[in-house]
Structure formats: structure tokens, C-alpha cells
Amino acid sequence: MVGGGQLARMTHEAGIPLGIRFKLLSDTPQDSAAQVVSDVVVGDYRDLDTLRAFAQGCDVVTFDHEHVPADHLRALEADGVVIRPGVEALLHAQDKGVMRERLRKAGVPCPRHRIVADPADVTRFAEEEGDGFPVVLKTVRGGYDGKGVWVVRRAEEAAEPFRAGVPVLAEEMVDFARELAANVVRSPHGQAVAYPVVESIQVNGVCDTVIAPAPGLSEELSGQAQEMALKIAAELGVVGHLAVELFETRDGRLLVNELAMRPHNSGHWTQDGAVTSQFANHVRAVLDLPLGDPRPRATWTVMTNVLGGDFPDMYAAYLHCMARDPALKIHMYGKDVKPGRKVGHVNTYGDDLADVRERGRHAADYLRGTITE
Ligand code: ADP
Q1: How does it assemble (predicted)?
Q2: Average pLDDT over residues 54-71
């Protein structure tokens, strides 16, 4: 796996029971996954020679992020390296402009959008194709956790996105009721499984809570979301885990926001809440093994992200959290605690959603140090 973040750490964990030999390309020996994988190459994924040397002897190469340059991926494929997902699929997770165009052609509903050239063009988009200001601007590449996304209320605010020197995508500002994610896994054989559709709650542009399944979502919309995700996976030839981030609009429509072709934060609940986790199914898919059962194990599972606070030592909080809630599942990434940084998550499950949410919230806040009892 290329990339040493927490997704690689948890994918590696899922491969252990299968006896899979897992090799990692990591930026530093301190990265989350590099701390636990025995076969680590430390190097820069932006360097083709490094990638080539890393891929030697790998049966299959997969990714914990979408930042490996597409030309490098093409060169590896030309060398005969098996990349999953392949570069033609991955392009749609790398570039929001490419993704929007492809989905529009495939008839998948998306927010109205267009690549814009400069702030004056943003005004034209707002007046002619959107519903006026505000408009959402996104750099087509390199964004994450809300970085690379701006809500602009007038043309004068639109200068900053253009400074990065990356194409800028303008989108209508969707008046959504909530955000959902439809997660599916597809294998090279074309077998696919769909997880229950989840609700994902963002705070300051960062995923805070994921509720599985999305409360109150009609069977019709949940079926539509799953079908949409399966269709996207098949049309784009995705192999592995695909997260389709969706807006549920106030008038009951679904619009695709983003695609991620790797395990995803909206699927972390599956570690403790589904028969087969997203990580185990990603491993199975990239190895072209039969996929595992995606069904939920509890009525409700809630994933609450643990962000860093002012206290560097979260271990000290384990005593309280574990004693208060013996069913709590803690997943920490081994990262240095910095304010606002995602350093772990907790999963809680049960029959009473309010209780399941409260237990997750309490543990995440206690670990962070924002509450002390
Ligand atoms: P990132 O690459 O940071 O994940 P996203 O495209 O997912 O970027 O946008 C981050 C957040 O910004 C979304 O989760 C959503 O809350 C908000 N957002 C993005 N696009 C729109 C839009 N067209 N209308 C309204 N809100 C949006």
C-alpha cells in the first residue's frame, strides 16, 4: 500500500488474519502505518523511481490516498505492475473536474458546476448557471477535510482559490438537509457489495460523526444511493472500496459530492458494526477474493472521530472511558496529538440511537480533554 496514514494502518490490520504480507511505502518511519508494518520502504510517492523500486515483488499495489501523480501510475501499469484501483478509475478520485464531467455523462445527479477561469467568470457562473451567490469554489486537486473548498458570497471573495495555480471548479451551493455516504466494494471479477447508507455529520469541514444506517432514510432513497454507488463503481471500473459522498437535499433528492477510492472515514464504523469491515473487503477486492458480507451487526453503530486537544497523552483517558463503557471500541492511530488533528475514532453500537451517540460523544470528548467527568 502506498501511503502511511491510518487507512494503511487499519488495512494492514485487516490483512493479518489472512496471513497477507503487507508492504508499505511511507513518507517517514513515524507515519501511522509505518509504526506497525514490518516491511516499510521510506520514500516519496511523487518520485517514479521510488515507486518502481517499491512495486518490485508486489502482487498488487493499492493506495491509502489519491495523491500519486497519474503519469507515474500509468508508467507503473506500463511496467506490468497491477494497480488497484487502476489509474483510469483513480483519476476520478484525484480530480474533481474530471469526476464531475464523467458523472454528468453517466447521468449521475451532481450539483450544477463548471470549471471557472477567474473571479469574473465566477460571477458569470453564479448569474447564468447557478442560483446567484453564494457559490462553492473548489480546487480540482489536492483538497481534503474542507481544505481546497471555499464558499464565496461575492466576486471579490473569489480571488484566493485561483492562487494555487490549479483549475478551479464552481458549484451551486446545495441547500442540503444532510450528508450521506454510500459505500460499496467491487472486485476485478465484478462482484460488488453495498454497505448500509450512512449519515455523516461534519463540523468545520471535518467529519465528526457517522451514523449507520442513516436515521430515517427511506428505503427508496437508500436503495437509490446504493444503486448509484454500484453503478459508479462499475462504470468507472473501480476495484476496492468506493465511498460516494452524497447530499440529501431538502426536497428529497440525492446529489453526488465526492468519490474516494480507498477505505474512507465514513466506513470506519464497519470495523465493529458490520460482518466484514471496509478494510477487510478492500483487501479481498484488490486480491480478487470473494467479498465478505457487508451487513450490519447491530441496530445502530456510531463512529465518532477523536480530534486532538490540548492534552498530548490520550492514554491517560483510557481508564475512565473503558470503565464507563465496556462495549466502547477505541481505534487510535499512533499520531502525535495536535489540536484539531484526527488522531483516532471510537465505535459504539446498540439498539438505542440516542444512547449509542451519547457514549461515542462522551468518549471522544473525554479523550480529547474537553470534558473531565
Ligand atoms: P474535501 O475534499 O475537503 O472532502 P468536499 O468537496 O467534500 O471537499 O467539500 C467539503 C465540504 O464542503 C462538504 O462535506 C460539504 O459540507 C461542503 N460542500 C462541498 N460542496 C458543496 C456544495 N456544492 N454545496 C454545499 N456545500 C458543499
Answers
A1: Homodimer.
A2: 97
pLDDT recorded at residue 131: 81
CATH number given to 176-368: 3.30.470.20
From start to end of the chain, where are the E strands? 23-26, 39-42, 113-116, 135-139, 149-152, 168-172, 176-186, 192-194, 198-203, 206-212, 240-249, 254-260, 300-307, 329-332, 342-350
At the top level of CATH, the class of 112-172 is: alpha beta
Q: What is the model's pTM?
A: 0.96
Distance 257 CA to ligand 1 centre (A): 7
Q: Which CATH class name applies to 6-83?
A: alpha beta
- What string of DSSP letters covers 206-227? EEEEEEESPTT--HHHHHHHHH
Which range has the worst mean pLDDT, 151-165, 286-300, 341-355?
Answer: 151-165
> What are residue 304's phi and psi, to 5 degrees?
-120, 125
CA of 290: how far to CAs of 53, 230, 278, in Å? Answer: 30, 17, 14
Domain boundaries, the chain: 6-83, 112-172, 176-368
Q: How far is the CA of 245 from the centre of ligand 1 (A)?
A: 9
DSSP H/E element including 234: helix 219-236
Q: Does 165 or 209 have the greater pLDDT score?
A: 209
Query: Any alpha helices (H) in 111-190, and if so which ranges?
Result: 119-128
- Residue with the three cell numbers 508486489: 58
Q: Cβ–Cβ contacts within 10 Å for residue 63, how many?
A: 25
CA of 56 to the centre of ligand 1 (A): 38
Residue 273 to residues 164, 281, 298, 318, Cα–Cα distance (Å) = 40, 14, 6, 21
Pairing, β 23-26 against β 39-42? parallel
Of ligand 1's atoms, which has the minimum distance to the CA of residue 255?
23
Binding residues for ATP: 96, 138, 171-174, 179, 257-258
Ligand 1: nearest atom to the Cα of 245? 7
